[in-house]
Design goal:
The protein is mainly β. It is built from one helix and ten strands. Strands 8-9-4-3-10 form a five-stranded mixed β-sheet. A three-stranded antiparallel β-sheet has the order 1-2-5, with no helix packed on it. β8 and β9 form a beta hairpin. The chain is globular and about 45 Å long. Bound molecules: zinc ion (2 copies). One zinc ion (ZN) binds next to α1.
Length: 138
């Protein structure tokens, strides 16, 4: 059986990457740091073994940020367009891939919410809100 490949890129397209094999996890994180990082209610991240990950273009355009006050928190972004891009965990064992950076839908789905007690007070599950196929006017 062919191994799954997870390809992704940033918004400006200059950073490209691929992860192969099985994702170790796929989860939403609702912690306050991930809210700041993502600018959204939660992040949606996959995790892979570091040896299953490769940059295909633009690695030099990426930057990582290690929050000094945190033991593990880290993030990665494209210095041109600011998009979230993968980053290697601080223990150098794993790569975290922001699911929104993927170019094709993976055949797996998020399996859990973590730091759910820290979720934004205004958080509402997307499926609980009215749905419009495209942009909606007020
Ligand atoms: Zn970019
Ligand atoms: Zn988080």
């Amino acid at each position: 059986m062919e191994e799954a490949t997870f390809r992704g890129s940033c918004l400006c397209g200059q950073v490209r990457f691929a992860a192969r094999g099985a994702a170790i996890l796929f989860q939403y994180c609702h912690c306050s740091r991930c809210r700041k990082r993502s600018g959204s209610a939660h992040c949606a991240n996959l995790m892979f073994k570091v040896e299953h990950f490769a940059w295909e273009a633009g690695e030099a355009l990426t930057k990582r940020f290690e929050l000094p006050a945190a033991e593990r928190f880290c993030s990665g972004f494209c210095t041109v367009c600011g998009s979230a891009v993968p980053w290697v965990t601080r223990n150098a064992k794993y790569v975290i891939v922001p699911a929104g950076a993927l170019d094709e839908s993976p055949d797996i789905f998020p399996e859990r919410n973590v730091h759910f007690d820290s979720r934004a007070q205004w958080y509402r599950a997307a499926s609980d809100l009215p749905q419009f196929a495209e942009e909606a006017s007020r």
